[in-house]
Design goal:
The protein is of the alpha/beta class and 356 residues long. The chain folds into two domains: 204 residues, inorganic pyrophosphatase (n-terminal core) (Alpha-Beta Complex); 125 residues, Roll (Diaminopimelate Epimerase, Chain A, domain 1), CATH 3.10.310. Helix content is 40%, strand content 19%. It has a six-stranded parallel sheet with strand order 4-3-2-5-6-7, covered by helices on one side. Strand 10, helix 9 and strand 11 form a beta-alpha-beta unit. The protein is globular. The chain binds manganese (II) ion. The site of manganese (II) ion (MN) has 6 residues, from loops.
């Protein structure tokens, strides 16, 4: 034990909950703004309040909804279109349910989570929606109208949800700690891209709860070996891959019908440096883009890049520097080839200098 540092006794079990007062979470970017949202939720105690996660709700989106629900128990959880397999695992482990495609118009207040554009939580038409707040940690953009709480310094949206719980002095339970760490692990690529603050937050959650990293990882990874559709998606992505070499860098694209993110990861592991994976469901189109850290080091920001592709193709794109996406309509192969062409030009410029 380090001298001079107050050490918390790790509780045997902490279902009773423990207070945020016992630890430190980094201060919220804008407490006044967060209080506006909190007050609205508190005033809605007798109303129907919906915490809405994006389509194919990932661990961070599900975790954000869970933490808000634990802090404000009258809040209901929903996801647009679908919930990812890891997201479903987390919900099942915690015995919680999240409605798929809830009718937003039935609610008095909607808190949109982890979504950088309306098309991630709707068909794009927000008319008839009730009052809403958007809480997000992706790159700030103009996709949402009105006031939006975006803290792009936070690696996971659940970190903002935890800050909201902290501000209200809510009790922190083991379930909340587990959800929080799961969301952070997922959005930092299993800590590969974590910053010291993410680790501080996880350390705080581990210290004050009876949750272990093994508990969290087994919930997140438990299904991997038996998820045949994910394994097939990864193999199909490899089978259908198209790739280009630009100097010593490899740019790859492929198509799957589901598990775009897993497929993209597997192509990065195979050797690609930048990957675009497209998928089509009914009329909807989705592109997942991933890049290795040295690509980001060249000054390429995939979120900005995909946002540009969105503008060019009349869709909505955005995201992080190394992980981004695009949602909308159109021909997948056409949009994949636009992504590949634009990225290829960008890489040439970075590797050979601007063309004259
Ligand atoms: Mn997120």
């Amino acid at each position: 034990m380090r001298a001079g540092k107050e050490c918390m006794d790790k509780p045997e079990r902490s279902e009773q909950g423990w207070s945020f007062d016992r630890g430190v979470l980094p201060q919220a970017m804008d407490e006044v703004f967060l209080w506006k949202i909190i007050n609205d939720i508190l005033l809605g105690r007798d109303d129907r309040v919906l915490a809405l996660a994006h389509h194919n709700a990932d661990l961070d989106a599900v975790a954000s909804a869970l933490v808000l629900k634990y802090a404000f128990p009258w809040l209901e959880m929903g996801a647009y279109d679908s919930i990812s397999a890891p997201g479903r695992n987390l919900l099942e482990h915690l015995g919680e349910e999240m409605a798929i495609d809830p009718n937003v118009k039935d609610y008095d207040l909607v808190i949109v989570l982890d979504s950088s554009s309306p098309i991630q939580v709707s068909d794009g038409d927000l008319s008839g929606w009730p009052r809403r707040w958007v809480i997000d940690h992706h790159m700030r953009n103009e996709n949402w109208s009105g006031e939006v709480y975006v803290d792009s310094d936070r690696s996971a949206c659940v970190e903002i949800a935890l800050q909201m719980a902290m501000l209200t002095g809510s009790k922190l339970t083991d379930d909340m700690a587990l959800a929080g760490i799961a969301g952070i692990i997922a959005d930092t690529g299993k800590f590969r891209f974590a910053d010291p603050t993410d680790l501080d937050i996880c350390s705080f959650l581990l210290n004050g709860s009876a949750v272990s990293m093994e508990d969290v990882l087994s919930v997140i990874e438990g299904e991997n070996y038996f998820d045949v559709s994910k394994k097939l998606a990864q193999l199909k992505a490899a089978k259908r891959v198209k790739y280009h070499r630009i100097k010593d860098q490899i740019l790859a694209s492929s198509r799957v019908s589901t598990f775009e993110a897993a497929a993209a990861r597997s192509l990065l592991i195979c050797g690609a440096d930048v990957v675009f994976i497209g998928s089509n469901r009914k009329d909807d189109l989705r592109i997942s883009a991933r890049a290795k850290p040295h690509i980001i080091g060249m000054g390429i920001h995939l979120g900005e890049f995909m946002s540009g592709i969105g503008v060019e193709t009349g869709n909505q794109g955005g995201g992080h520097d190394g992980a981004a996406g695009l949602n909308g309509k159109g021909n997948v192969d056409r949009i994949l080839s636009i992504c590949t062409k634009r990225m290829s030009d960008l890489l040439k410029e970075k590797l050979y200098g601007p063309s004259r």
